[in-house]
């Protein structure tokens, strides 16, 4: 079966031609599924049945074998180690996934997070016994408030989108507390998909703000929409720098327009890493912003997570922050406020989590802050912006930059104009990067740009590393223009598996493994 | 069959007071392989410009806006199992829904074939 691009719809191993007897390529071992490794008619471990254990299962006793593969400990261990060796991570190489900020996760953070005083705590431990942990959360929150110029912080949200939800719930609570019913949230076209999704989840109607020719949002357009929907605007959700990697030049005017219309300014903080130590979002008129500790503050993500998405709030929204809150007493001790009635000043909208947030990530982020200091964090932002512009400058004569009028911030955006007439698509280009040993950039996002490629090198990369990356982009762009389409259409050629058929996977998802039918040789 | 078009790349084929609606070949091509289509309920009343259906491809999910106002009288339920019809025959077998027109005059504001082609050429 072939798909639209005449590619086979069944992925085939890159080693189909069997260059070796085993199918392995040197010490890169071909790895079958766990169900194909283990047999169901054997047992991997041999444990005696306890002598005095009676069977209390009664009629609940399983009647048929469950069909799980039986593996010995080394077999199971090797399976997962081999799979992990096929993984690509920021620890293996450049990971320029735009908008995701895949920066280095310093080992110092890991050492701090593994201290037993942090790592072995129970969330229900008596407060008097965990004062150090409470102090760390409080101090981290204080730094986040200082860095962003905001009034207060809710530490418990566990990821970016969870933080968005938290911020928008605070806005909804504030609107309600004013006795108003506002139903509209403005979201620019270039927004992260989670922005309109969050607004819709909370029952708001999303009204899109079109992007200008130069990729930014016009305050005049926001004013026009605010006039058109007078008295009904609850908030705008704006990312700054935006997903085109551009700083919104009219952000203060936009904030003023939304405030004048009685709405709040939610800022998507996913790109805070570009302005850390340079711009205080509070000074831009922001009312709520989530902070991805797993982006800006170097804690692991992308399989190594979990994430953490504390939300900083303006004075207007602060009373509505979710519980728990950590307060510092006059005696210098820290108090975890779990119930609204314990603190008269609070009017929380509820809770986001059962407990107090991602403690391990708090420790890592705090370690990063302390090890960098204010000047180091500012330099991290400067280097991230410098690196993105270095990549853009290195390839802009060969690749197309949709918004050349503004310098890039922390990420460089390209469209597929430079591939016009080559027969190579953005997806092909990204797959060819895998063959060259790079994780591809973000593709087809933001949606406002045709065939978008969004490159975020982060501050972690050295100039030497960027030079190799830029040279590769240039080689690929020139290869596409020279008509070497097989390099792209067949990519990835050297990965453990060839290109997967996303279309078929989405149209006919196979969600349950079933034993393969015996492969029969072709006739004769 | 005379198709009329919108700037959001929907097509309309009005026969009597019922209009068949789908997305254009240009839209289907831009979206890439369509993998899922969400259709409205029969009986739902829609106003011109309402997001009435959703089409999802391997690249993106997009709203389909009602090009005219009316009541949904039929949907192409075949798209549930075979969303690829939208790519194979966007302006015929890949239709989305049929509306009973409540404001037939709205049809006059839509583009004809030639105007729409000029419009997509300019994109």
Automatic annotation (TrEMBL), chain A:
This is glycine dehydrogenase (aminomethyl-transferring). Residues 482-524 are annotated as: Disordered. Residues 483-505 have a biased composition (Basic and acidic residues). GO terms for cellular component: cytosol; glycine cleavage complex. Residues 173-302 form the Aminotransferase class V domain. Keywords: Oxidoreductase, Pyridoxal phosphate. Residues 380-480 form the Glycine dehydrogenase C-terminal domain. InterPro entries: Aminotrans_V_dom (IPR000192), GDC-P_C (IPR049316), GDC_P (IPR020581), PyrdxlP-dep_Trfase (IPR015424), PyrdxlP-dep_Trfase_major (IPR015421), PyrdxlP-dep_Trfase_small (IPR015422). The glycine cleavage system catalyzes the degradation of glycine. The P protein binds the alpha-amino group of glycine through its pyridoxal phosphate cofactor; CO(2) is released and the remaining methylamine moiety is then transferred to the lipoamide cofactor of the H protein. NCBIfam families: PRK04366.1. Its EC number is 1.4.4.2. It is an enzyme of class 1 (oxidoreductase). One of its GO terms (molecular function) is glycine dehydrogenase (decarboxylating) activity. Pfam families: Aminotran_5 (PF00266), GcvP2_C (PF21478). Gene3D superfamilies: 6.20.440.10, Aspartate Aminotransferase, domain 1 (3.90.1150.10), Type I PLP-dependent aspartate aminotransferase-like (Major domain) (3.40.640.10). It catalyses: N(6)-[(R)-lipoyl]-L-lysyl-[glycine-cleavage complex H protein] + glycine + H(+) = N(6)-[(R)-S(8)-aminomethyldihydrolipoyl]-L-lysyl-[glycine-cleavage complex H protein] + CO2. GO terms for biological process: glycine decarboxylation via glycine cleavage system.
